[in-house]
Amino acid sequence: MSKPLLIGLGLLALLGTAAAQTNPAQIVQERRDGLRAVGAHMEAMAAIARAGSDPRPAAERVAAVQAFFVNFPDRFPAGTARGTAGLDTRALPEIWTDRANFERVAAALGPRLEALNTAAQSGDARAFAAAVQATGAACGDCHRPFRAR
Predict the structure, then answer these.
(1) Residue 142, marked binder
(2) Which of 12, 64, 67, 147 would give a disulfide with 16, using CB separation of 3.0 to 4.6 Å?
(3) Domain spanning 3-146 has what CATH number?
């Protein structure tokens, strides 16, 4: 992944939501785009893990995922749920009706991503594979209760 792309994703992560707070459609689009990018990174990292390859090149991907998840719950302001007229989102109302649980589940991803980053940088393929699996499980912990299928 190129440095300009990483910088762009980082800026999107840190500034994108704040700049779009008044436009729910833009918030949802930025959220979807970012989550698609995260999914692509996770798929690429899973392939590295399955192959038992050197995980060090994946550190840039981990950094991009970490940048996206900075203040992740803020990417879900009121008025951006599934069923809102004009919005194409799978974000379930439980994100807002069970906000404390959503924030708890979202926060649990941070330590998993830190472990993934450490494993990637270590070059230990086995540790990286375990960290990819644990991170994927944390993603699922959020998808199941808070995302429509």
Answers:
(1) yes
(2) 12
(3) 1.20.120.10
